[in-house]
Amino acid sequence: MDISEVARRTGLPASTLRFYENRGLIAAVSAAGERRRFAPGVLDQLALIALGQAGGLSLDEIQAMLAPDGALRVDRQLLLDKADSIDATIKRLRAMSQGLRHAAVCPAANHAQCPTFQRLLKAASGRVKQSRTAPAAAKKKNAIRS
Prior knowledge:
The longest helix has 31 residues, at 115-145. This protein has a two-stranded antiparallel ribbon with strand order 1-2. Strand 1 and strand 2 form a beta hairpin. It is built from 6 helices and 2 strands. It is mostly helical and 146 residues long. The protein has 2 domains: 3-65, Multidrug-efflux Transporter Regulator, Chain: A, Domain 2 (Orthogonal Bundle), CATH 1.10.1660.10; 76-134. Mean pLDDT is 84; it is low at 138-146.
């Protein structure tokens, strides 16, 4: 099938398909004139790429799991690590959601007086402080090693 058919069936623009081909994620079987042609199996490869991206995998990580013949070589540890990362994000977001719901219905006259809201603020300020100081701390740590 030509590139326009693959684009139509997957919803991906032809430019993305060409990008994936240049990266070695998919391969055209021939170029008939100006149009690239792909084997039907490219649809499965593109579905795997989409699944990997939805799971937080980079294109490099996805490419490492695709053999040149399109076969899948699963890196089980990488998948477990990504699942753990997703679980941690879900836990953090669930806590944030619960905190926001509490703040919305909190009976305290002033949120500054609500212990639950104060814990939420403290947790948020710790993340802000950590994200602002992390690069500086990493530079300092690397400078000490040198």
